Amino acid sequence: AQSVTQLGSHVSVSEGALVLLRCNYSSSVPPYLFWYVQYPNQGLQLLLKYTTGATLVKGINGFEAEFKKSETSFHLTKPSAHMSDAAEYFCAVISPENFNKFYFGSGTKLNVKP
Amino acid sequence: NAGVTQTPKFRVLKTGQSMTLLCAQDMNHEYMYWYRQDPGMGLRLIHYSVGEGTTAKGEVPDGYNVSRLKKQNFLLGLESAAPSQTSVYFCASSLLTRANTGELFFGEGSRLTVL
């Protein structure tokens, strides 16, 4: 069975500072990994995804994430936070053997201080 | 450019009442999902469908029923609402194949309060 753990339900950074949101997964096979972003009162939008190939993936709005199999991690980073990055971020995983179900982490709310 | 549309967006029910949430997608996606989102718990899968006429249970199916009579629509029903079903409900759809792995497209959510 898949599971996703996001460390830190709330993260606060200053504008211009590094953003680091942590995601660890458990899976019996290398999964496909995703980060979604949810702005207030909206649905989730895909930020980036890893399926196969290059382990460093780039997404929208300057975000990127690196798949590290040895650490079972898929942390999300952005070099310089912007006020508009304030949102809730969800890590998700599916197994390549079963495309039916996405498993989501509990989410991390990012606050960006001026 | 509608994507995934959920109706209604807000609803207040009394305990024991019934209601149906409608999800419609115009992207010809095979897979459709209903999730509920509660604070600190992320998204939990209620039911899903891998095609017209098929449905399956997710993580938290109790108290809900679903139907997929048409490919573009996925209905979520509450037969007898309970306060524990107060939540924000999200519908999502996807075209999941090995060649197109897994972007979920979400609706804007339906906020349900059960008194």
Mean pLDDT of chain B: 91
Shape of chain B: globular
Query: What share of residues are in beta strands of chain A?
Result: over 45%
Q: What's the total count of β strands of chain B?
A: 11
Tally of alpha and pi helices of chain B:
0
**Cα separation of the termini of chain B:** 35 Å
**Biggest sheet layout of chain B:** 7 strands, mixed
Query: Structural class from helices and strands of chain A?
Result: mainly beta
Helix and strand element order of chain B: EEEEEEEEEEE
The percent range for helix content of chain B is under 10%
Regions of chain B with pLDDT < 50 over 5+ consecutive residues?
none
Radius of gyration of chain B: 14 Å
> Could you state the order of secondary-structure elements of chain A as H and E?
EEEEEEEEEEEE
Strand content of chain B is over 45%
Rounded average pLDDT of chain A: 90
| Oligomeric status | heterodimer
Radius of gyration of chain A: 14 Å
Give the proportion of residues in helices of chain A.
under 10%
Folded structure, characterized:
The complex is a heterodimer of chains A (114) and B (115). Chain A has no helices and 12 strands. Chain A is mostly beta strands and 114 residues long. In chain A, the strands form 3 sheets. In chain A, strands 2, 5, 6, 10, 11 and 12 form a 6-stranded mixed beta sheet that branches. A 4-stranded antiparallel beta sheet of chain A has the order 3-9-8-7, with no helix packed on it. A two-stranded antiparallel sheet of chain A has the order 1-4. Chain A is globular. Chain B is mostly beta strands. The radius of gyration of chain B is 14 Å and the shape is globular. Chain B starts with a strand and ends with a strand. Chains A and B meet through β5, β6, β10 and β11 of A and β4 and β5 of B.
